[in-house]
Each structure stands twice: as structure tokens, then as C-alpha cells.
Amino acid sequence: MDGQNIYQPQTPTPVVPVPQVTPSAPKRRSPKIIIFILLGIVLLSLIFVAVKFLPKKTAGGGEITMWGLWEDEPTFAPLIAEYQQQNPGVKIAYVRQSQQDYRERLTNSLAKGDGPDIFRFHNSWVPMLKSSLDYVPASVVSPADFAKNYYPVMTSDLSSGTGIVGIPLMYDGLALFINQDIFDKAGKIPPTTWDELRITAKALTQKDDQGVITQAGVALGKTGNVDNWPEILALMMLQNGVSLSKPTGKLAEDALTFYTLFSTVDGVWDDTQPPSTVAFATGKLAMYLGPSWRAFEIMQQNPSLKFKVVPVPQVTKISQNQPGTTYATYWVEGVWAKSNNKKAAWDFLKFLSSKDSLTKLYTNASAQRQFGEPYPRTDMADLLKDQPILAPIISQAPNAESWYLDSRTFDGPTGINSQINKYFEDAVNAVGSGTPASKALETVASGVSQILAQYGMIAK
């Protein structure tokens, strides 16, 4: 019956005449039925077009709240808009938080059940937040790919239990800042070992007739006015082979004593000096140790200061092509384990952590300040090889180490950094006042062991 009109009358076959009977009209479909059929066809066509041409909601739907810390909303806004265009079912609210009491506000928010879906945390906070952190799904990045794409220190810091608990969008670590005018005037070159740094610091220190320091060689030996002293002391100990979770023995004693020599013996820095960042910015300090973001403070205070950034010194000389050991201190993006939108949150972080998005974030940040945050990915290191401040920091990132000695993490008085910093601070001050390093470190080791035990860690 294909193509045949079943309602078309056919030519009758001759038959014996019979009485005439008026045939009834053939049954026709109701106009309403035809209209419904046509409407159904149109609706199906519209659905087909929508499915084929509208953006696919690969991340599911929902509203995501992201707590940031250092970056302004304009830095993330273009990427949020791009992601939302690709995933129209997802709405993302970026909320920049104040650094004051940040960790306490974050943990309180999570404990009350109204925490953000995505939040920034310091690499040293994993022991404090591990119960609130969701594991990175393999569909976002597998553990093998994470180890391949990110610096080793990040795999070490962010491994907890059976997986990785965060994705970094940046990296930072210690570097040595030198005053170019002071070095050029004295005909000095940047030191590459701690012994060279000590000799150079003494040569560049100037004092008046009363013995007051008018130009300091390096900001070391104290805690009250040496910014980033916890990271610096940790670096010295790690480079000397010390286990910071059990900082006893000759190697630890030597490192602690060496740190204090710059004030107790060499006299290149003392309590009369202003905070080291201020001293360097005003041109009265020849050498200063800090992470990349300190450059913003320095340039803001003194835009005309000529300074250079070089890799941190090592215990002994190393070959030119070998990265030395530095100390890492950086921030990470995590997803709340109890979030109702974990799938979309991780999908958004997968988008943000791509090379293309990281490049855009760096460009957006650079439009507001001198440079963006250093890339965390090993396959993006070459993009910063000509950046004068970041290149030396990235060059040592492959050998970076970290621990729970960190300054300005704003983890509150009960935070792991604040508690451990206090024990080491007391030790530095005690040795500076004549207490043997061995005795000072006994107290440190006992205190550190107790703090680590609070978070289920054993001092090794």
C-alpha cells in the first residue's frame, strides 16, 4: 500500500445487477487530530534542534560559591563568564575574603554546614582540613597525571589518605632579593651559598661612629623584624638534612645556630632595624629573602628601587643547570566534601587549571599589577623563563620542599603554623640570648610532637 491513497474509490468490477444501495461516505480523521499530529512534529523538530545546537550542560546544574583570597573579582570574572556560557546550567559566585582570621572563618563555615563549594587554602593546612576536603576525581586529573603536570612538592603536600585533595592555580617559594645599586657600587655578585652570603653581608654592612647599622647586609638572625623568618629557618634546616618533625641532633643545632650568627656574631642585622621588607624597600638593606608576592610591597613602597631576584643560596655549590632546594609556600583550591554541587565544582576547577585558563588568569592579574601568580604546572615553566622576578623562583620549584613553618597564612592562634612557629621563635630567641641550641631544640621537638599528634601525625 506504499504510496496508495486508501480513500480513492477504485473502478468497480462488472457484477450481476442488484438493487441500488447508496454508499455511505468514507470515514475521515477529525481536524483536531491532524492539528495535534502537526504540533507534535513541530515540537519534536524543536527539541532536535535544541539538543543539537544548544551548549551541553556537561557539568550538571547548580549555583557554586567560590571563596578567593588574594585575587580581585575582575581577575576571575572573564573566566567565570566563559565557563557559564559553555555550561548555562551553572552559576558561579566568586567572593573574595579578607585574610584576617580567614582559616577560622572558613572552618566555622564548613562546620555549620553553609561553607563554600570551592575555597582557597594554604598548602600547609591539609592536616587541619582533611576531613572537609573532597578528593580530586580521576575524571578531573588522575594521580598519575597530577604527579606529571605539577611540581613534586605539590604531590607530597596534597596527598591525603587515598588521593589528592586540591588543585593549585599558582606556586610560590623563597628567593633572594638583592639591591642592585648596593651590589654594583661595591662590585659584588649575588652569593650562591650560605657561606658566600655571610661574607657578602658583612662586607656590605655599614655602621656610623656609634656602631648603629645604617646599611644592613642581610635581614637574618631575628624573628621580630625578619619577614618570612619561619620559611627561611625551615629552608636552612631542610637543606642541612634536618627532619623538621623531629628537629634534634647536630644538623638541627648547626642550622639554628647559623641562623642566629647574623645578629649575635656578625652584627649585620639587629633589633633596631625596621621590618625587613620596609628596610629593603627604602634601600637600606642589601639582601632580603622572601616569596614573589613581596615584590608588590617593595615596588609599591619604592617604585624607583633597582633590585634583582636570584635563587636562594645552597649549603654547597651546585652546577649551574641543577636546581637548588628552595622552600615552597603557596595556595590551593579545594572542594568541600559536603557540597551539593561537587561535580560542577570540580568541573569548573578542571576548566580553571587548564593551560589556557591559567594563561588568561595570569594576563588578567598582570593588567592590575606587575605580574600574575607563578604557574603551578611543570609544562608551563618556560612561559616564565624571561620574567625577571618569577624565573629564578620557578627555576628551583622542581626541588622545592615544604613543611608547617609558614608566615602570614592567617591560620589563627590555634592553627598548625601559628603553634609550630611559636616553638621555633622561642628557640631562635633563646639561642640569641645565649641558650645552647641543643637545649632550645629539646623544647621545640617536644612541642612539635604534641602538635602533630593532634592531627594524627607521628614525628619521624
Q: For the record, give the distance between the C-alpha atoms at the N and C termini, rounded to a whole number.
A: 87 Å
Tell me the strand percentage band. Answer: 5-15%
Number of helices: 17
Sheet with the most strands, sense and barrel status: 5 strands, mixed
In which range does the helix fraction lie? 40-55%
CATH class of the largest domain: Alpha Beta
Structure class: alpha/beta
Q: How are helices and strands ordered from N to C?
A: HEHEHEHHHEEEHHEEHHHEHEEHHHHH
Number of domains: 2
Strand elements, count: 11
Overall 3D geometry? globular
Rg to the nearest angstrom?
33 Å
Helices, strands, pairings?
Layout lengths: L30 H23 L8 E7 L4 H14 L3 E7 L5 H11 L5 E5 L3 H4 L13 H7 L2 H7 E2 L2 E2 L10 E5 H7 L7 H11 L1 E2 L5 E6 L10 H11 L10 H15 L11 H6 L3 E6 L3 H8 L5 E4 L20 E5 L6 H11 L2 H12 L23 H6 L20 H17 L4 H18 L6
Parallel strand pairs: 1-2, 1-3, 8-9
Antiparallel strand pairs: 3-11, 4-5, 6-9, 6-10, 7-8
Helix pairs in contact: 2-14, 10-16, 16-17
